[in-house]
Recover the amino acids of this structure.
């Protein structure tokens, strides 16, 4: 199951039960932080026992530019 939600305040992607993965739920959330002028990225996954693990990243403007270029190149090729 894939589920994507997006609005000006955040982007959220959830997938669950993917064969290519460990069949556990995974989430990606991207939330702009206007006060810090960065994008907060949260990666969350559950293990088979139901424990949840979250990793966070703070993308600065230059990081986002590089990521956008990478994604645009990928889109052009695929």
């Amino acid at each position: 199951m894939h589920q994507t939600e997006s609005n000006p305040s955040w982007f959220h992607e959830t997938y669950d039960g993917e064969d290519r993965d460990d069949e556990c739920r995974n989430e990606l959330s991207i939330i702009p932080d206007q006060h810090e002028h960065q994008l907060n990225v949260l990666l969350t996954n559950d293990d088979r026992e139901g424990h949840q693990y979250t990793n966070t990243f703070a993308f600065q403007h230059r990081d986002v530019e590089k990521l956008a270029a990478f994604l645009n190149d990928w889109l052009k090729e695929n």
Summary: The chain has a mean pLDDT of 90. The CA atoms of residues 46 and 52 lie 4 Å apart.
